[in-house]
Amino acid sequence: MAKADIGLIGLAVMGQNLVLNMADHGYRVAVFNRTTSKVDEFIAGPAKDTSIIGTHSMEELVSALAKPRKVMLMVKAGAVVDSFIDMLVPLLEPGDVIIDGGNSHFPDSTRRTAYLREKGLLFIGTGISGGEEGARHGPSIMPGGDPKAWPLVKDIFQAVSAKVDGEPCCQWVGQDGAGHFVKMVHNGIEYGDMQLICEAYSLMDNALGMSCDQMHEVFKQWNSGVLDSYLIDITKDILAMKDEDGQPLVNKILDTAGQKGTGKWTAISALDLGVPLTLIGEAVFARVLSSLKDERVRASAILGPRQKATETGADDNIINALRDALYASKIISYAQGFMLMREAAKEQGWELNYGEIALMWRGGCIIRSTFLGNIKEAYDNNPELENLALDRFFTEALKSAEAGWRKAVILAVKNGIPAPAFASALSYFDGYRSERLPANLLQAQRDYFGAHTYERIDKKRGEFFHTDWTGHGGKVASTTYEV
Known about the structure:
Layout: E1 6-9, H1 13-24, E2 29-32, H2 36-44, E3 53-54, H3 58-63, E4 70-73, H4 79-88, E5 97-100, H5 106-118, E6 122-129, H6 131-137, E7 140-145, H7 150-160, E8 163-164, E9 167-168, E10 174-175, H8 178-207, H9 212-222, H10 230-240, H11 262-273, H12 278-290, H13 293-303, H14 316-348, H15 354-360, H16 371-381, H17 392-414, H18 420-432, H19 439-450
Parallel strand pairs: 1-2, 1-4, 2-3, 4-5, 5-6, 7-10
Antiparallel strand pairs: 6-7, 8-9
């Protein structure tokens, strides 16, 4: 029997669909699952009449592979990945490749790259986005790890990835944990996009009193303009879906949201790197707040429900204001996400291509949108761009949307409707373009209680001063200065 081009361990939904995708593109795949009955079910079911090889042990899987062997793990992130790596190491030879395609935390991928390099093996930690449909028909793939491994898997990965204008949504991201870092930021932006859409929906529902059918029509219209994206498209469909009794299904879904941790990792990474990732942070906290359902119900009875909506109906002006708020906030979310990647690249020594990253996200993934083409153009025009908001296209877009953006936030405040992502994005916009912020008072406070020193506007940067604010504090200052 002919040897397989690649092996895959983990036959859950993503693993099965990725294998079928590879087979569709002419690659012979050997598969293994810890519960071996799943292998038999897969071979007899979805993989029937294909070239896919079922195996019932790790040894059998490895022996079925052509050299250099390539083994892809589609298993739960964390200790399970390390367990499978430890089982594979004795079975492989120098030059073989282990690929982790799960949602691993990027420091784990950095550690695994170094560990396997010591064993003479190559490692790739790759983010894969697009869910079940993407895995089956073309996901966005973000590989990083040992650069020597990339030529060995490039053809397979690019063949099965989504394509935009003929270009694969898969390019080498960078060494060590770069691939999983970029996927983490992708997921953080996904949190932000979803929260922004939910806030627009909430304002339409609670402030404007619109029906789901009316909202469906608005999102349908938005999906043909600057907001054209996968998430707007599925929101349109969700709002149109009726339950068995003919009522909107979305109204019957409990208002508590789950999370798998990647949004939280993104926010923590931003705090570690000193990047103001305010919108994504608010999106994570919004999910946390939603999970306090019972407590919120009790609080509503004690604190009182929000006041009755002040608006009557929705005219084009207010709908356009919500569209502008959603669009401008989305720009801010991506601007913050790309800022985070820039800072991480500096710290880790990665050479990230931000235009290529935007291209990888244009197809196959959950945040795919026309908008990403504008981001690619921005970084193609200026690879050293400090902030997306400073690109001419996005500068003009933000200025154009500003009035509507403010109107939407005012609508939320007037009606007691939480819109933390809209509001935090607007606050960031106002803060980022402020020549002077009140941090001068903050620094004075720090110097007053802790002698932390401050800089002066009439002296050169890097020169620090301390004032004896009370008259009995002395001239001794703190030995460290922290922004």
